[in-house]
Design brief:
Cofactor: K(+)
CATH architecture of the largest domain: Alpha-Beta Barrel
Radius of gyration: 24 Å
Keywords: CBS domain, Cytoplasm, GMP biosynthesis, Metal-binding, NAD, Oxidoreductase, Potassium, Purine biosynthesis
CATH superfamily of the largest domain: Aldolase class I
Bound molecules: 1,4-dihydronicotinamide adenine dinucleotide, xanthosine-5'-monophosphate, potassium ion
Distance between the termini: 45 Å
Number of domains: 2
Subunit structure: Homotetramer.
Number of strands: 22
CATH class of the largest domain: Alpha Beta
Structural class: alpha/beta
CATH topology of the largest domain: TIM Barrel
Protein name: Inosine-5'-monophosphate dehydrogenase
Largest sheet: 8 strands, parallel, barrel
Catalytic activity: IMP + NAD(+) + H2O = XMP + NADH + H(+)
Strand order of the largest sheet: 4-5-13-14-15-16-17-18
Length: about 500
């Protein structure tokens, strides 16, 4: 029997002179000999940083602050805190992530018994259900009790001191490192519906029964990303200016696990010098360089000593770089090419930008990435910074590019106006994304969909997918415009798309 050629090998497909993105390419199914649940997704963000799911949140000021970072770590991924803030504020975000072990949406507020609560600002209009009362009103002082928003609302006289109506807190304290299960047990033992966590002399957090129930309502959390000291792992972005060295020092003191050099074009003298500086000063800290999209860009940063590479130029949903600067690359080609060279040095690749569904994640990972970094996919979640707004009857959250005029005006300004640049040109837009609920719910469902994709490919792990691709066993094709239409929902008068 003669051998019939079917599909292309990745090598052949990506060497035709086209810049392909995720939607352009499709994998041909392979052979299934294991169940979906046998697919395992543990991976690495960078050389020394393991994760149990391949998900990373973007260092953008409408995506990753402490709530997002805690939840990403609780899911087994990681969040990269943005740097569009004073270095002290970015370091405070790191400390906040490191302090808590439960993915809460509130931030503890402290008062002294002598204080009065005149209005519900301290409860953030219901978002913060409890105020903690300590002797001095600071976290590092003796815990005396708490005030619940639901009790305060019923208070006839709001002028009385907290002392007169707070609930005393005997038996409500447990160590900061207690996980949700332990906190739940503790509440049951003590017959309480509120618990506080403490670390040394510092009161860290307050957990209510409603928090426990909310989190229990989501899919069961797997193995979270915790460091050797039991705190959540977290990363932070910095730039490549002189002032970023001081920022880094603060971030390292606050306990970051990885630093990401945040630039649209990482192959620069500034970045290479910064990588060498960090490797010399902080040899225990993993450094992710980028962004890159070509083999030679990647080689330069690998040679400089990066522990991870972030791939993507102009592929992001809010990016206008390719239009403005005429440089970049289709994301599927970029991930494949960079991963081909990075894998030879054992440097993990982060596929950054352009992810809008689980299929894109399967494609990014199979093409060689170890993780995907997402902005718009996560920006509509409860954990993203900012409040929901109403836009034509839809609940939305603001989402903006870090190179948009608005974001630059807030802080990244100095990167543009610092020394030589005189005129500001935007490379991103300001927009909005739809409410998606909690990442604690939709990320696990997305990972289940990714596992189904891997099963169809006959790959039971990321490594196995990479091996199948590179050995030429896994075949691909380019989809024509018509094939892409066919691959989507088509020909219906109307439909509702609900995946879970
Ligand atoms: N992934 C992507 O496609 C893109 C991402 N972005 C995002 O926008 C933000 C800003 O990105 P960029 O503008 O690329 O930031 P950047 O800080 O890398 O570059 C800004 C300008 O400053 C210059 N510069 C950097 N370090 C310097 C130093 N030490 N001395 C003198 N000049 C120096 C750069 O060459 C560039 O002209 C980041 O958050 C980035 O992730 C922006 C555009 C595209
Ligand atoms: O050209 C750009 N102008 C910008 O203003 C900008 N801000 C962020 N980014 C990059 O986009 C990624 C997020 O993309 P997604 O929303 O598609 O996940 C992010 O992770 C970044 O790599 C930008 N790119
Ligand atoms: K784009």
């Amino acid at each position: 029997m003669s051998i019939i050629e079917d599909g292309f090998s990745s090598d052949r497909l990506f060497n035709q002179g086209y810049s392909y993105t995720y939607d352009d390419v499709i994998f041909l199914p392979h052979y299934i000999d294991f169940p979906t649940d046998a697919v395992l997704l543990p991976t690495k963000l960078s050389r020394r940083l393991p994760l149990s799911i391949p998900c990373v949140s973007s260092p953008m000021d409408t995506v990753t602050e402490s709530h997002m970072a805690v939840s990403m770590a609780a899911l087994g991924g990681i969040g990269i805190l943005h740097s569009n803030a004073a270095s002290s504020d970015q370091a405070a975000m790191v400390r906040s992530v490191k302090a808590r072990r439960v993915p809460l949406l509130s931030a503890p507020v402290f008062k002294s018994p002598e204080d009065r609560i005149h209005n519900d600002d301290v409860f953030d209009h219901g978002a913060n259900p409890y105020v903690l009362v300590t002797e001095s009103g600071a976290p590092s002082s003796k815990l005396l009790g708490y005030v619940a928003s639901r009790d305060w609302v019923k208070l006839a006289d709001k002028e009385v001191k907290i002392y007169d109506y707070m609930v005393s807190c005997k038996d409500m304290v447990l160590p900061w490192s207690s996980d949700l299960g332990r906190i739940e047990e503790f509440m049951a033992e003590k017959g309480r519906d509120v618990a506080a966590t403490v670390r040394g002399d510092e009161v860290v957090d307050v957990v209510g029964k409603e928090d426990v129930e909310r989190i229990r309502g989501y899919p069961k959390l797997g193995v979270g990303s915790v460091g050797p000291d039991g705190s959540w792992r977290v990363g932070a972005a910095i730039g490549t200016r002189e002032s970023d060295k001081e920022r880094l020092e603060e971030l390292v003191k606050a306990g970051i696990d990885v630093v990401v050099l945040d630039s649209s074009q990482g192959n620069s003298i500034y970045q290479i010098e910064m990588i060498k500086y960090i490797k010399k000063m902080y040899s225990d800290l993993d450094v992710v360089g980028g962004n890159v999209v070509t083999v030679s860009q990647a080689q330069n940063l690998i040679q400089a000593g990066v522990d991870g590479l972030r791939v993507g130029m102009g592929s992001g949903s809010i990016c206008t770089t390719q239009e403005v600067c005429a440089v970049g690359r289709g994301q599927a080609t970029a991930v494949y090419k960079v991963a081909s060279v990075a894998s030879q040095s054992g440097v993990p690749v982060i596929a950054d930008g352009g992810i809008s569904n689980s299929g894109h994640i399967v494609k990014a990972l199979t093409l060689g990435a170890s993780t995907v970094m997402m902005g718009s996919f996560l920006a509509g979640s409860t954990e993203a910074p900012g409040a929901y707004e109403n836009q034509n009857g839809r609940r939305i959250k603001k989402y903006r590019g870090m190179g948009s005029l608005e974001a630059m005006a807030k802080g990244s300004d100095q990167r543009y106006l610092g020394d030589t640049a005189k005129l500001k040109i935007a490379q991103g837009v300001v927009g909005a994304v739809a409410d998606k609920g909690s990442v604690l719910k939709f990320v696990p469902y997305t990972m289940q969909a990714v596992k189904q994709g891997f099963q169809d490919l006959g790959a039971s792990s990321l490594q196995s997918a990479h091996d199948l691709l590179r050995s030429g066993v896994l075949r691909l094709e380019v989809r024509t415009g018509a094939a892409q239409v066919e691959g989507g929902v088509h020909g219906l008068v109307s439909y509702k798309k609900k995946s879970f």
